[in-house]
Design brief:
The longest helix is centred in the C-terminal third of the chain and has 10 residues, at 71-80. It contains 4 helices and 4 strands, in the order βααββααβ. The protein has helices spanning 15-23, 27-35, 60-68, 71-80; strands at residues 2-10, 38-46, 49-56, 84-85. By secondary structure, it is α+β, with helices and mostly antiparallel strands. The chain is globular, with a radius of gyration of 13 Å.
Length: 86
């Protein structure tokens, strides 16, 4: 199993909104992540810094390709642009 980590920045004053949106994550996004073989996905914060970690049951290359080809992931990334910077 391969592992992947990422880091991003919360925009000032947007932590509550970031948490709210993730508490209401879209079911179709969860499906894409599952189809990509992503599991044990965790995100945590340190001040305004976000750290994400997940495991890739089908490998990082497959997970990355699946997400890159997903219209749902594109919409989610656009939806999150006003609360965080990747």
């Amino acid at each position: 199993m391969e592992r992947y980590a990422w880091k991003a920045t919360l925009l000032e004053g947007k932590k509550e909104e970031y948490v709210r949106r993730h508490d209401e994550i879209w079911p179709e996004l969860v499906k894409v992540l599952k189809d990509a073989g992503i599991c044990n996905y965790t995100i945590w914060t340190d001040g305004s810094t976000l750290f994400g970690y997940y495991e890739c049951e089908k490998g990082i290359e497959f997970a990355t390709k699946t997400q890159a080809q997903s219209e749902v992931v594109d919409r989610w990334n656009e939806y999150m642009q006003d609360v965080m910077e990747m």
